[in-house]
Amino acid sequence: MLKKETRILGLSTIGKKRLKPIVGAIFRGSLWLDAIMTCLPTESSQEVPTLTSVLRKSKQYSQIHAAIFSREDVLEGGIQDYRRLSQLVKFPVFAIAKKPRKTLQSRELVIIKREGTRIPLWINDYDPKRAAELYSLACADGYSTPEAVRVAELVAYCSKYPESRIC
After folding, report:
1. pLDDT over threshold 90, residue 26
2. Residue 140 DSSP label
């Protein structure tokens, strides 16, 4: 059984260009924000090593239970990069699948039902029940998106348009 204060890392990106900054928000469950992080890889092959380095340097690294990406195309290398990141940081890495790919095996994709919404979640050979529990823990009551992911997307969006948006 997981505690309500389990730390979850939400990750999103600014824009869709090739080398894009990655924004992360670490939440204690869905209760409160613990930290904000940013990462700017210098080349696409350096996305995972740079992100791993930034995560390992954070004070919360040892307490993070899972990372949830806002969509499956945040990292350039796709599914292989998510697997490699999971191995390097030593905690599960999930991605909300906006467009589930037919190449995903059934054990890698789980449909989570939350607040009347069906959310496809790529789980990378992780226990589906445990993934659903982590996902539910990360969501505030009445919402189907984890708070960490929601805040990471909001920060990324506001960073993209700093002069014309009120966040």
Report:
1. yes
2. P
Count: domains in the chain = 1
Q: How many percent of the chain have pLDDT more than 70?
A: 87
Would you say residue 29 lies in a domain?
yes
Q: What CATH number is associated with residue 143? A: 3.30.2170.10
Distance of CA 64 to the CA centre of its chain: 12
CA–CA distance, 65 with 67 (Å, rounded to integer): 7
Strand, coil or helix: what is 33? strand
- Write down the pTM of the prediction: 0.87
- Round to whole Å and give the CA distance between 69 and 13: 9
Q: Percentage of the chain surpassing pLDDT 90?
A: 32
d(CA 1, CA 4): 10
Instruction: Give the pairing type, strands 93-96 and 109-114.
Output: unpaired
Q: Check: CB of residue 13 under 8 Å from CB of residue 154.
A: no
Q: Are strands 64-69 and 7-13 parallel, antiparallel or unpaired?
A: parallel
